[in-house]
Fold each of these.
Amino acid sequence: MSAILPINLDALLHCRGVESERVEFKASWNANPTGAQVLRTICAFANDYHNLNGGYIVIGVAEEDGRAVLPPRGLSAGDVEAAQTWIRGQCNRLDPPYPPILSPETVGDRLILVVWAPASEMRPHRAPADAGGRGRYWVRLGAETVDAEQRGDMLRGLVQQTARVPWDDRRATDARVEDLRETKVREHLRDTGSGLIDEPDARNVYRRMRLTARVNDHEVPRNAGLLFFASEPVQWFRGARIEVVQFAADRAGDVQEERVFGGALADQIRGCLNHLENLSASHLQKQSDRSQVRGWVSYPLPALRETLVNAMYHRGYDVDQPEPTKVYLYPGRVEVISYPGPVPGIEHRHLMPDAEVRAVPARNRRIGEFLKELGLAEGRLSGLPKVFRAMAENGSPAPTFDFNEERTFFQATLPAHPEYGALSALRDVAHLRALGQHEDANRRIESAWASNPASAILATEMIRSYGQRGEIGHAEEVLKTFEAEGPASAVSHVANTLVDVLLEAHEERKAQELLRRDRPMMFGQDAIDAAILARRLRDSRAAHRYFERAGDALYADPRALHEFAQTKIWLATEAHRRRQGESNRRFLTEARTLLERVIQLDASPNRHAWAWRDLARTLNRLRTPIREVEDAYRKAIEHLPTETRFVRELEQIRTSRR
């Protein structure tokens, strides 16, 4: 492991904990053209236009499709020495001069050279485009090194950053090096797999990690060092804490709980995330006699994580930002508020779903780097898309992001899953029914439904409640309302509930009409439920159609597979009556395959017994040898020895085969 680089070498080669645009690979070394290319890229990393803290050039490793080709080609010892001598000499000729950090490394038995070019405090720098050419201002644009003069406003933006150091990389002159906790630093090195952990001198470790800097004749910590490795950063930065407040109702509601998370920045984030995860409710609806579940959480953890980490990464910590990062928990949403607002260049339109976020200079470069090394943050510009995606995959409404015209704050709002409030209502209803207060229970569910007609949980409960009272017309109205208000993906589930209620009320005609409606979004467990309802209506053709739409959900569900096989056996019987021999045999063969799958799955002895029995009858109709039929019946009898029909049927088959 490297004793010079603060990052793990393997993580660097695989671009873990560092964005790929901050790493450039060179397969071999020569002064021209490789040397000239390396010099321009060193200049670009030193200029650090987007405040990402420079980057790395890895010489001796080829690149293919943006990834390192491993094992590396490597360099000779002479090439490593020649490259270092050339790079040091040419970097002294940059305007102004800039010294990168050169680290010879070994990967397997191959030598490579890693050039680490952190952001410069003396930017902007210039390097010639070619030998003897005039100096140009180079910057990184994605994974490319480009001339800022040829990129519109980039040169002006770079010049505006002249000698300007982002706050988190500045010197904390009112703190001492001793305020850094060596144990925390070494814990970070262990977590990231850095070889610097073997360096015994703590102050040397701090220098190589760029946690400290010289001021006159002594060293002081940098602000980022105090944020991540001091015991209580709030001692210097009043905003370096997270305040979590849980409200009983909306903003005017009573405070149920208040927590403050302090300490080192990474510890704050982890502690707050654990707290939020414990508060996030999960709902798994287990299906009777099935291995499938329907599930969601009130707030998906990836969305909570990205939202909180983004707030801590992009906020300000200077003396004019004393407010903590605030997490407000309301019954129907989570608000995360940080200070100040976004940097110039980010507008409201960039915070919408599918919007292309502009690559603008970040407020903090070291905070993001440390968070990425720890795996708490991901690549640049990936945070908001991940939040939108996580919320959509959970079935939650889209998040919103907002800031005021003065850019004094930034607020992210994550709405709760639509069914989250419904669970609370159902708990109340169950409690009232347990007390025998059925009228109050009915009023509670009706009130909840009136305020949230998009809830599938409340819609199904309302339909069942009306069904139990014989108010079928009201149950049908609930479905109509939900079809207009609720998510299209949940309509099939609610419609299946009404079909079940209609069957219980002996309204077979209505049930069949409803079941036969075309529902394009019916698939998975909803399709299985519809197929089983169709079998109750003795509509095997509809049942077969729905089973086929179920997809992969079918093949882990023994009950559904068994009923699908029985449907195929019935269709085979129909084909036989119509003298359709080919269809008859096809349905029977497919039923055999399904039944053989059922008996391999984990299911009750009763289920296995009847599956073996149906398999025996199918084998008989396929005219397989009598021994195979007898073996299947014996298995059925072993699982359910009290069922006399198995013995009787086997004797009848033996008689018919003689």
Amino acid sequence: MRKEGRPECSGTPLFEDLDFPCTDTSLFFDSSTPIARLQGELIWRRPQEICPSPTLFPTNISLAHAKQGLLGDCWFLCACSFLLKNQQLLNKVLPPDQPQWGNGRYRGSFQFRFWQQGDWTEVTIDDRLPCIGSALCFSRCHSPSAFWVALLEKAYAKLHGSYEHLWAGQVAEALVDLTGGVAERWSLGDIGSEEERKTEQDSDQVGRKKLDLSLLSHVKNDCALSCSTHTSPGELGEMGQYHALIVMEWEDVKKVSGSEVRLLRIRNPWGRCCWGGAWTQSGAGWRSLDPDYAAHLKSRLAEGEFWLDETEFMSQFDDITVGYPITEEGHLKSLCTGNLLSHQHHLASRWIKGFSAGGCRNSSSYSSNPKFWLKVCERGEVLISLLQYRKWRNSTKYAQTPQEDSKNMKHQHYRAIALHMWKVEKKRFSLNRMLNKVPCASTHCHAYEREVILHRQLDPGYYLLIPSTYQPGAETRFLIRVFSTSSTSFSALKNPAPSLPPTADGEWETTYFRGSWVEGKTAGGSRNFLSYGQNPCFFFTVCNEPAVTSGVNVKVTLHQIRPDTDLHPIGFHVFKVPRGKSEQTIIRDQDPVASCVPHCYTQDVSLACTLPPGCYTVVPSTYQPDCSSNFTLSLARRIHRKVVQSQERLGKVIQEVSHISVMKN
């Protein structure tokens, strides 16, 4: 890796980003992609070393569109093109008035912002860019003197950990990161067999299984559109598999015969035309139109663009990604109606193994998933987004270490997630009875996607929302966002979720407690300290069941209610309570029968154990005395009777017929 000379401005050294240096660590992750062959061949240059008069944007805005280089990030470049249609969003991502080349305040750095998990994250980079010789290696603008695309790509690579991390992705994810909005991916394939269509009748995605562009007529000029291929269709064979393109516009055109044809103008991020259908420059399709209007349509084409009709579009592409329009005030517009979704709420939460990762509705622990209240004040459109946080493959300032690996790359970063919603007649209700009813709405299945969407017209009233992963015990953070045309309120259910049983079979009874360690009163610290007896105690019993001869499985989970950045080391002990003994005597004189130690700096600690019948007390503690915090304690005891097994499994669609979820492959 070579670095060229360092131009200076007024004698002041230009900024060099030590967090994202000009080394292989910024370019490569595991060298598993084709760019690995570039190791040792790249030179990092600043724009003024590449061309004599660099600028962020060209005077001719049509030359500002992205042109893909050697990096497989067409998905990201398709999202970038949407910024050119919305100046407000462009200014959000790339704050204006930053000093550029030739300006006395220029110092070789640029600031960008990306939407991440509910907030805009600022990323600062230097303007040294990877080149082969004197030409940019990766993405660039069609204008050779414009550098906004190359710099934005570098900032996004820094956010992800390296350029190589940008190889392959979803357009929907990039759209959300660049807009803070919502994007959906719809299939362009066939709906399926008659049996599948019947199964889909209760699915949230039925009406969108096969896209009709007329549904988007309300927002056709404001939304972001991208189409992609997963295979190598005949007319687009040059592109190979997994390529994303931009839908620039579509228009219903009258033929000389009087009939209409819908034409779509497509832009290839590669910057060259790859289409050989009826609407190429000399294609037969143009002869069916008025010659003057045909010439007018052809004149709209820029480099890398081509026209095709709707029939060709539906047959050549596999899916389309649609980004919701966003107004200057930051409000979403409905894709179906164009209505303004002016009311917004969002809440962050997490699925925690042993506490709130209850899995899908097949599992008896489903009710332990996080739960949310949605109050709709008047009838209107409601859009609900469940967005899980990505499990990053690397560790940097911006990225996190993964919790586990997967053999399937598609599933490596995400859990299979879904969202179910029940209408509740009153706020006080039986949860178990409610969950036995059919949800009023749900996402179509548990999907390995970063974000799943639920869109409904809702009547006034209360609604219970339960997000879930398919597998019990699958941990990750998530964000729920609610957008609506009418006034709504949104809150998390205050009751703590019960813990999960240590095994999947049988039924479990869960009791949960709230408590607090208060400095000088109930924050006694660990057993190393004489004040240990001041800690709160929680009594429970294990009953003697005739069918059980070897004890009862018990699982205790302690959850401290503190920010992740300010956790106490926590743990707990379980003591048996003989008749006639006080708790202080027991804690002082007896050894625990079970312990969850050493104390750990974590949100939750849990212990599964087998206890014989009798009376017990759990004593939770921090390691040091006088460490204040609120906490919850959940206790799961196994009940020895069988439960009904349901049949939910991963697949295309879901049909709710009872509390059992049935899914057809």
Amino acid sequence: MDKKKDHKKNIFHHEVDEDEMEIKNNHKKAIVYDKRNRNHHRESTDRNMNDSFHNGNHKENSNIKNDISDNIDSKEFNSNHEHMHHEEMDEMSHEFMSHDSNGMMDMKDLKKKFWTSLILTIPIIILSPMMGMEMPFQISFFGSYWIVLLIGTIIYFYGGSPFYNGSKKELKDKKPAMMTLIFMGITVAYFYSLYSVFANNIFHIYPMVSDFFWELATLIDIMLLGHIIEMNSIMSASSAIDKLAKLLPKKAHKIENGNIIDIDVSKLNEKDIVEIRAGEKIPADGIIIHGKTSINESMVTGESKRITKNVNNGVIGGSVNGEGNIQVKITGTGKKSYLSQVQNLVSKAQKEQSKRETMADIIARTLFYVAIILGIISFVSWYYVENISIAFSVAVTVLVIACPHALGLAIPLVVARSTSIGANNGLIFRNRTSFEQIKKLRYALMDKTGTLTEGNFKVTNYKSLNDGFTNQNILEISAGLENGSNHPLAIGILSKAKEMNLNYEKALDTHQETGIGLSGNINGEKFRIVSEAYLDRKDIFHDKSTFEKLAEKGNSISYLLNKNDELLGFISQGDEIKLESKKMIDSLKKRNITPIMLTGDNKQTANLVAQRLGINNVFGKLLPEDKEKIVRKYQNSGDAVMMIGDGVNDAPSLAAADIGVAIGSGTDVAIDSADVILVKSNPQDIIKFLDLGIKTTSKMNQNLVWGAGYNIIALPLAAGVLAPFGFMLNPLIGAILMSLSTVLVAINAMLLKDVNKS
């Protein structure tokens, strides 16, 4: 498994000299996270990790915990003051979009090369012998060999160019694999065939030299077809980098000399003042200098609640403003912004991911070295036994047949079949290497909000427990008490009241009573909203079973009382746990896969959800780079790690994990960073993916055996190991074996069964 050095930059802590903390023009220069806040975050993270590993089941967790703590301790602020606007973001996006481990171009060019090569192959099949054997349908005439040479040259340089580019990259990385093996085969075939044309028709060498134009053309066609099948099967990789940039609005309301001017976000600079209206996206990182609001940062941080923001509080570009109008002083644009740093984490993780090797690459590398060694041995042996002409011919034959046609279809045909089955089961695969990681999978790291829970913090139930009040009365009175509050629970109640178009009376003299709850007067009558703890303390009877049933789903329950502490009703709200989450966790445990929760949400809520689901290891209040570092530290144990998430804050860890699984209802950025997408957003579909992945890997391995099996038989025979016994590989037998292995590979791929079938 490839490892990557840990990132040492803290993207959230802005160090600003204390001199700048003075009040200027009633606008206070504030720091989003000063040194004291950083220490608090570090201590909080350490406590979370200590709690998590204290409950862990694996001995190695203690070592992982220490590594993670050291890593997060070492965060430093990235003091790069350059501005990266949209043009620079685009530039970065294109850099990573063009990166491809196989050096392949886009699908349009690939198909063009395939169809052109296929059409040009027809006259070669008619005019050229197959492995030296004349077929009944073949014809020849004076000068036909020059036509074959011309067409073969076009096919080699045009159709074979992807394999040249791919092999160049593999050799540069000192990791020859499938592209190198293919390019070796077609290159030897082409230049030996070129030699045969001149030897036979210009120099009239005897015996005549056989050409390999037939093998050259068909090999290029089959290999191009294999790549097209695989690329068609896998969802095209759109750019997560671009999607991150799209989280920001296009325009910002800049305040200049008392006037509001709409400008492009890319033109914002630090210390600019902008106005952000209710419901608008925050254009850049900054500090509130005027106004009060609540901001939904779940799109960015994963926090499921709206966060109350006052003057001097920091805001993150890309998050959504609530119902208040605010003025913000910009503190971070371009490379200093939160989203830009997340973007950087994703792109680095994607680069690292592209280095992962597949079983096909390993087999191809082995065949490459075996063919080279066997070719050299064959040449030397036959040179001393016979002559250089025969030695040359035998060595070339060995190198040409080292890459069988079946090997080019072994994986693509299985991927195509698996992708079809996956689509029928709500699974989309974007990276076939994820299948091969399942057998090593030991840790399943997962986000909470939107992954294990529904992702919407809202009123889930409200009910009257007093005959004098209706269910609607309970909601109306509660909304009246909570009116004007920015508390997350209050926002949930007010949002529900607004959704139902309730006309409620606003409470007077509202105040928070320590140890009791919120109280106020409505129409001259006093009401209060309290928690279950207050009911227990005052011995107020209530239905415990109802409370436990709602709490098990992660709900927070508030009770409405009158002035005499009589129970009138209750309201529950929260981020409900998905029904399938518990089944998924139990299934992972049965497979000896340890579930671990990584969330940007508060530790209390995270622990509650984890307890209900049976998850022992919990990390709360994590930032995106914290999640990625935890993923990498678990990878350092030598086992494969799966990450399941849905938010922008999950994107770096999804890209870094051995298997990244995105919830279909999640953000585009998370989806584009993942290997697998759960279309139905059903956690239980993860188990379907694991089952299908195991079956797919088995079929891949079987097909690789069938594809490489041809070489096991043909290579030594072509080298002449049985020559002392009077047997050399007949070209026709070689062609039959090659065709048979290709047919077996195709049939075996179609035998891959649905995950719902035995």
Amino acid sequence: MNPRRLFPVLLLLAGLAAGCASGGMASGLVVIPPDVTKAQAPEGKWQGIHAIYLYNIGYVTYDPIDVGFASYPSYAYSRFAKVKLLTRASTEGGMFGNIRITHRGDLYEKHAKVIKPDGTETELKDSDYVTTVLVKDVIPNRTPPIDLKETQIIFPGLEPGDVIEYSYTSRDPSLLWLFSQVDAPVIYSKFMVARPQGRVEIQPVIYDPQKLDPQQGKESGMATGMAGYLSIGGVSHRAVYDIWTATDIAPIPFEEAMPPLVDVASGVQVWHFDKRWAWSTLGETYYKWFTHYGRYPSRAAKLAKQVIAGISDPRDRAKAIHDWVKKTLIIQEYAQLTPVPRSVEIETIDIDELMEEKNATPERVANLMWLMMHEAGVDATLVLAVHDETFPALEKLPSIYQFTHPLLALDDGTMIDTTNRLCPFGMVPWRFEGRKALWVKAGSVSFRDLPVSKPRANQRTIEISGSIDAEGVARVEAKYHMTGQMAYAWRKWLVPMRPKEREDSTRDIVTITAQKAEVDSFTFNNLEDPDKPLEVVLKYHVPGYSQLLRDKMVLKTGAFIHHTACPVLKDSRGLDLYVCPKPMTEKRFNAVRFPFLRFEEMKAQINFPPGFLLQALPKGFRTRHIEENTSVGARTSYGSDGGKNLIVLRQLSVNQPLVDKQGYPKLRDLIRRYQAQKDTLVTLELPKMD
């Protein structure tokens, strides 16, 4: 029996929610100071921004359902924000026109309004909030079930100059706050966290790359929260709140290839412990639950027997199980481990129910894979990892819930992903590469860095067959061959698209190569088979691509060799993530972060009309090193077969994931020069007339 069901469900006090949301006093605690509620946006203080946070406040108390139920309770997390919109872009859905909130279970409270420049206020209606279920039963074995949901606050009719206010209270397992925001300064930011009962140790971790030096303080008040609750026994109690405050916070400008926000923003993450346990104890507690306390479900054995029939090699068995699970289950994005108490057993993942519903978090995917591999005689290690949009795991901080995803590893070092069906066996997504992880087996735990794939493992090779005819029409066939993280990124981009969207995206790729290009055909091979290289074949032509000057034909190489386009994905915060970034701005605020190491090679042959001869080879360039002893190496070289054609070899190798601001000017100049090769002029001599 689940011990959580032994406790009565605690009632929410809606009246308390209304009282605290007003922003005044919360049982003696000042959530939003009166002068902050009246703050005005300063003029001219920051340039090139879209909006200004007048305030951004987080207020956290204990979750009314989980109080006293588990060793790691979740929290009632409230946020209050007031934002002045300055530009048309800030009013659109990609910025402040549409606020997205991810939450477990229903929101306890939500409120939003628009304030026009003349002071007119418009409260949002119920129809302005849209909620969808992302993952069902994300907290297993609860009655009623608790789903992972997303609520969108859709602000209607926004104009530059408007002010928006919004607040909400959600169930949240993490005590994380970022003072810095992208492209928007913050006048006042505060994070308030109540100390739970039974947590004798408070461990805040301050991350301050922006050197804000947030002020820390403590205040006492009634621990009732935005949603409010009655503590066990029906008696409320006072609590101590840890408070961090920062003011006049400059914005972090969004830049192509900027590091994840958690690497550049100042913030605080708070951890509560009842006792500072050893890592071995923490790992053993989670491992016992993950392995069903040694009582392995019979369904897993039956499934394993079916999947590995006729396969004897352990690694081949592991791959067969990995492939079958990913094809069978629908993996939902969810970055959280199940809270497991040390003192009692709780219900484990129900494999029969999982196979019936098919929707699965990465933790459930990992669990089914591990159980089936165990039954198949494959020794797989549990690897608890954290992706690059979360603060890195700290060995000095004894909490297994720093980690967000369980991966698996074989004894030969083979890594097994559990998060995305498009990621092949033997590879983990780049967002985990190089991050510190916890290897957990029965009786042992160890910290290690996840391996980083080499540039040649993440390769894009392009073979170009091109021609220019006497009328000046350029014709091109480009064959892309992609492996590793490069193929994974393209699949993440292309697979979710509808056929018309893929056609439009393909057209965009071609027009980036040559603006006036017309697509003749395109094909994708192995698009949904991650075990094979992804192949893309593009055929296009460009009318009027050359110029005739008396006895010469002149054309640029770009339509043939400028194949540098790559997908632009979205991170979890909705920011653009450039797969193959090419930062070239004169100045830069952030370091450059490449998503993964990669190697690109393009071989092109451009055939000329009969009798037309190349006047002279263009001048190429190269860095001193290509694949070693440099963060990024590049080359472009030219050759010809008797002047009848032009043969081009281009290479680009990203060998280090991070280039700091001191190294940026050199990188910028290299990328500019590499990109400029598209404008290289080629002169052909026309056939001589007798």
